[in-house]
Structure formats: structure tokens, C-alpha cells
Request: fold
Amino acid sequence: LVVHGNNVETDVAPFIENGRTLVPVRVISETLGFKVQWIAEEEKVVIGSPTDAGSGNGIALFIGNATAYLNEHETVILDVAPKVISGRTFVPVRFVAEQFSLNVRWDEENWTVIIGEETPAPVVEAAPLPVATNTNIQSIVGSGGTNVTESEPIEGQYIGNKNTGVFHYPGCSSVKKMSAKNKVSISSRDNAINGGYRPCQICKP
Reply:
């Protein structure tokens, strides 16, 4: 049994029943700092955090009874009931620890219950930054009435069609339909015009 990174020795060993690990309730009180009250006439164990002492908040467990009571009104059915062995009261450790927001993990390789182990925050990969393209470039009107564009073309990013003599932005729908043998890269708009190419009427480069 490991609690908050420390090995805990018990005078009576924990055991597993129906896939659940039971530990002496003394471990709960001494190592986790919880308040534990034993009511002999009812065979009842009440476990609460130090701040809840006397408030009625906490867990009530009964020996041999699989019904647990939370904060005196909510009931939960346990997979295995608390029990007394060799004069020690055993309770299901995962159920108790998780009610007080403690992480519980079973180390199969070492047959060890680990309580209070820090859970690393999930790693969230940052979304890739958008890549600027000439796709969907739209002509908009500025406040002064002059036509401006949302994005200026990048040098070397015009595509000319040798067959039609038209040049386009790379994202133009006409480029996608263009035969590879007819495509030519043009470094600037001036070079396209001087080379005898005319602008596409769809993307309007």
C-alpha cells in the first residue's frame, strides 16, 4: 500500500475480494488524516475528513452490509461489504478514497494499491496555425471607396495557362482543372501581362 508516495505498513495485510481491495480502517484514519468513528452497538464505521468532523458529512459503513451512506442521506451499493478480520475492521479502499477526491490506482505488476498519486494533466497538442493561401481571396471596398484586397499575391504564386493565355491565383478553380503540361509559374503580375497573359475573370488576379 502506497499513500501519497509513501509505503504504508499495516499490522494486518490488505486483501482482495471480488476485485476490490480492502484495508484496515486504521490506515484511513492515520495515513489519510480522516476522522474515523466506530459505533460498536450498530457495527457501524463513520469516516469523515477533518473539516467535516461533527457536521454529518462523510461515509457511513456497516459490517457485513454492502449499502454505504453518503452525507447521511445518499445510498451507494458496494461491490463488497466491510468486514472484521482478526479484530480489524476492513473497508473497500478505492470507494472510500474516491469519495474524498483522491486518486486510486492498482499496480498489477507489484500488487500494490497507490492512493493520492498525482495524475498528470493531459497533453493537448496546439492546433496548427492556418497557412495563408490565395484561395477565397475576395475584393472588398475600403472606407474611402477604393477597391482593396484581403491578401496581396505572393511573388511566384501566379499560374499561367499556356494553352489559353490566362493567368490565375493558385487557388483558382480553373487551376484545378488545368492540365499539368499547360501550367507555367509566373513570378509577378507584371511578368504575366508582359508575357502576353491576361487575368482570369474568375479569381481576378
The chain has two domains: 2-115, 139-199.
